[in-house]
Amino acid sequence: MTTITPTLDIGQIRRLRILCISETGWHDTATVFDDIRAAGGAQTDQYSIPWPPFGPLHADNAAGFSALLEAETSDGSVRRLLFDTGWNPEWMDRRFAEEGIDRLLQEGRIEALILSHEHFDHFWGIGSTLKHCPGIAIYIPEGFHPEGLAFIRQQGHSGPLITVPSEQPVVLFPGLAVVSFPMSTLLQVQGENVLYARLQDHGLSMITGCGHGGVLNLLDYARRTFIGGEHIHAIYGGLHLSPLEDWDAQRDQIVNTLSSYGIAKMACNHCTGRVAVEKMLESGLPVLRGTARYGSQTDLFLATATCWNWGEMSGRVTDRIGTLRRTSVQG
Fold it and tell me: 3-state class of 162 per DSSP?
């Protein structure tokens, strides 16, 4: 058997703080999938469905996923990225204001928006970002449709738009890289960006929007590719195991295999599925529970307005963003 030695050194960061700006993509799953069926089914072009901001269809059901990543680099400087930008502009405008994201964007203190993929609940709220910082750099995966590219322009984007080549890691700054993975999924969406961070004294961590490429595939890619990837410290985001709350023996095997990776901490969003998180907790995986507040409907997911700190705090990061209601958890 041939052993592949990881060769890519992306550097290290001291710590990473993740603020879950908005966890839930939508408030009622049945309504979303009824809309999809009425529009023609799973292979329908998502841009043909008159959801916000393209139309008023069930606007009160639309929310969106978005997170702020704040990294402390080895020299003590702070780097901030926005990971996804939600769906409903009204919902995202409110969440950005409540967490101070609007101010950070206006002041140019968020250097880039990383779009995990083109799905409506991760991308269609881009106007809420661009209204505050039209020149922000945007990273998209390979596979974006012309309609999506046109939408970015129509929302007023004037900065760099970077397509991440498939399976060719782009180091955004020392210690954090983005990788685009080919995939094809619901509503003709293709390609997904995944973030990998190497934490000093802890190992590699992974951040996903939905994880359509398969959590084991994404972790095994890290093991093969990145120095430090043999130790997976933490995972955050969507693992796409049971988004429709179905389950089978193959999914049981995935959970069993995850248990062999030695992961220290995990936290999930709605794309993972409630059944999947329950199964992971039953298996003993170290999943952090949330608070089921501010739009999050279950404590199985890391809730909206929650901060999760990875790595060691040096004491040099002192600014506080947003309101006092935020919950912080250590990892």
Answer: strand
Q: Is residue 1 part of a domain?
A: no
**Which of 62, 80, 82, 71 is CA-nearest to residue 21?**
82
Evaluate whether residue 326 is within a structural domain: no
19 in a structural domain: yes
- Structural domain span for residue 239: 13-314
* Coil, strand or helix at 125: coil
Q: What is the pLDDT of residues 35-71, one digit of tens each?
A: 999 999 999 999 999 999 999 999 999 999 999 999 9
How many Cα atoms sit within 13 Å of 35 on the Cβ side? Answer: 22
Neighbours of 37 (CB within 10 A): 11
CA angle in degrees (0–180, nearest 5) for 4-235-237: 125
Residue 35 domain-assigned (yes or no): yes
Strands 327-330 and 306-311: parallel
Burial of 100 (0-12, 13-18, 19+ CB in 10 A): middle
Q: What is the pLDDT of residues 294-325, one digit of tens each?
A: 677 778 888 777 888 887 544 333 333 443 34
289/268 Cα distance (integer angstroms): 9
pLDDT digits (tens, 9 = 90+) for 196-210: 999 999 999 999 999
d(CA 39, CA 147): 18
Number of domains in the chain: 1
Could you give the 3-state DSSP secondary structure of residue 12? coil
CA-to-CA separations, 243 to 25, 44, 141, 269, in angstroms, rounded: 11, 18, 22, 10
pTM score > 0.85 for this model?
yes
> What is the share, in percent, of the chain residues with pLDDT greater than 90?
77
Q: Residue 286's domain is classified under what CATH number? A: 3.60.15.10
Locus of tokens 């661009």: 130
